[in-house]
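Changelog-adjacent note: as of this version, every example in the card shows the full chain rather than a window. The one below runs 103 residues end to end.
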Amino acid sequence: MKLSRGADVLVSEVIDVKAAIQLFSAAPGITEATRALMTAHMVKEHLSPEEVGKIAQQAGVKLVVLTHFVPAGDSETDVTTYTAGVKAQFSGPVVAGRDLDEF
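Full-length structure tokens:
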């Protein structure tokens, strides 16, 4: 959060943990050990929409731009769960970034 304090724009990846877990859990031959490792990775190494919102609000940023939507990647078409989660914690504007966007 220190690095984002007072920033005009906070660009962040974002994850829907439940959807990501469902996706990799459905993979053929996945073991319980692999599922546990992947779940731990998703929770520890990625940010939920609510976490992004908390960081943005506490840092006092002006705008949040979301990118790298997990699990669907940048081809995600319905980003409302991501943006709504951020907005639940952050009072400023939230944008789902796309390639070649300018801010």
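Structural remarks: The longest strand covers residues 63-70.
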